[in-house]
Amino acid sequence: MRRGRLRVLLGAAPGVGKTYTMLEEGKRLLGEGRDVVVGFVETHGRRATAAMTAGLELVPRRVSTHRGMPLEELDLDALLARRPEVALVDELAHTNAPGSRHEKRWQDVEELLDAGIDVISTVNTQHIESLGDVVLQITGVPQRETIPDRVLRAADQIEVVDLAPQALRDRLSGGLVYPAERIDAALSNYFRLGNLTALRELALLWLADEVDSALKAYRAEHGISHKWEARERVVVALTGGPEGETLLRRGARIASRSSGGELIAVHVTRPDGMRARHPGALDAQRTLVEQLGGTFHQVVGEDVPRALVEFARSVDATQLVIGVSRRSRLAAAFSGPGIGATVIRESGDIDVHIVTHAAAGAALSLPRIGGALSRTRLLIGFAVALVAGPLLSWVLLQFHTETSITSDVLAYQLLVIVVALIGGIWPGLFAAVLSGITLNFLFVAPVHTLTIADPRQFLALVFYVANALLVSYVVDQAARRTREAKRAAAESQLLATMAGSVLRGEDALQAMVTRTREAFGLAGVRLLLDGEPRVADGEPTRDDRVSLVPIGERGTLELHGPDLDASERRLLQVIATQLDAAIEHGALASAAEEASELAETDKVRSALLAAVGHDLRRPLTSASAAISALRSPELRLPADERAELLDTAAESLDSLAELVTNLLDVSRVQAGALAVRLAPVETADVVFPALDELGLGPGEVELDLADGVPPLLADAGLLQRVVVNLLANAVRHSPSGERVRIAASGFRGRVQLRVVDRGPGIPVERRDGVFTPFQRLGDTDNETGLGLGLALSKGFVEGMDGTLEVEDTPGGGLTMVVTLPAADAGAAADAAPTTSAGEEGPVR
Known about the structure:
By secondary structure, the chain is an alpha/beta fold. β9 (233-238), α10 and β10 form a beta-alpha-beta unit. It is flat and about 150 Å long. This is histidine kinase.
């Protein structure tokens, strides 16, 4: 019997539309004449999903009872007896009710497949067994229902039902995923934008790995060995040297340019097992590879270039990153092509990147003016003269005749020119003198002596040496001009970098000190301000020479390293001027910041005086008038009027006491001297007293204090003040007839208390100011108090190690979210919403 085919619709999170897509596909197959039935579908009360079942045959569910609760499950026997061509079975990772034939629904599906029935099913990323730890880190929600990876990988077809994270949040806000009372908690917990983005990436990467495995299997079955560039795989060759970190970071940047790129590091060891010269560096690079999300491999090979290329081909690499050779040019000239040249020749269709590393750290170093040519070129010039001179003499002796003296002289002249072009004036002069003596001794009569019989021959030798000197001088001057041009370019680049550093502000000093050390090849540089170290770069030793350069009136630049020549000191003076400008710029910026803070403080003082002046005057005036009337001997007041005056005085004094208390609380919060006594507090024990204090009932407030929410770790008195302030604001701004909602939920060891209103809300650009003392969102009539409520509330919550945040209410309005630690982390974890295998999702 033919085994059925399994098609799985994979979603990043609940609500992306997997069940809807499954039913839609079922209807399409039904329209093509296929026999399709719905074995099990969970609509979760979504009208659009339920409507999609219309026109499809539904196999009745099996009902079992567990602890007195009726549970509906897939009726496997009924579905096997019906034997459709295609069965739609939702929630592949679902755990069956106790007493079922199989523990998991995927096991039911296996039996359907064995019976030759094709199955279309659904699963969420969080239910894949290998991703459980990653999902827990992202969402904080443990997954109790999982499906083994092998089962999912064995599916004949896996498709991702994708929906952008913000689009999913919009669906959630519109009530298309959960009922209205669950939307706020879902948006703030599991369905945060960052969570959804990470889960979406996880789903796409898992499927990409699965597709990659299938591609490798196909290529192996069909004997395809050449590279298919389906995905960028960057192999970085590590020698164990200190340049490895540079190569790894370059390779990571190359891999990140394409979606799903892989970073693979490889180190080739010799068959004799010799360790790298820097084993500590190699261990550190292994750690860096893991931090960059790559993998580290170690292979053994006698031929390092061939081993690298073979490894790159084995992993289907598209890019190979190697470092530039650390050998000198002289060593490279005598030892043949290096690893880089061999790798390029053998790499074929693999792109090879040769990355500079030693020179990268000295990109702004200034060439030394000293000798025009490098020491290496001088040594090579002398070596060519010593080796090529005797060789040329031997060749000329083999063909010498009495009439060949002219060609002999020209041959030696050519040798002198070649040596001069390579090594400059001193090797050229050495070659000229040596070849002149050789000519006189071997080819000019009388031979085998240094005697010159004809004065014209002496004159010819003088011209010969003069020509060599002139050629050598021209080469030396050209090299000197080249060195000076390079130095001028480096100086210009250095000064441009310095100027840019000044414009960048607070990091300018560190950048300029670093560039100074690099430019002059110093061991270390320190900038001292008023005798105290400000910034430093490098690692100087005790043996280094120390030079001091004054920087304006306050600073000193301390240089550790060799003495600088006159041209370098002129450039250093320019750098000192730039440093002085940067220091002055920083001082001015600090002064401006202090002035800004003083201005803000003055604004607050002015607002405080204006508000306090009115708010103090009003209760004081009322209390004073009432008491004066009571004390007046001329007024004989009835008992009821005296009682009314006493009540007025008492209310005014209570208002005054509350005002003073709030001002003291604000000062304690701002001074960090708030006394907080943390203890476990039940949410209801805070909410109900706050409602009583404000005189609010069911007509004004809707409560959603779910069972199982762990107690908070808070100061009950302070938290009650916070709830009172938030409730008062919400009720004041809610439209007539709209109730304020208070909801509590637990998530990842924290408890959230949400106060939700349907008022006008607060524009996003003005939300930063709602927690500022003495702010009333533009009110200036001083009739609504000091505007301390939200400032105090935020200070109280932060004093209890919590947060107070402002969010939009879905459908319009404002939601104030108080987040505090749960009293017991274990209890909080138990109370945290858990996931079922379906679209219900991990929210309360």
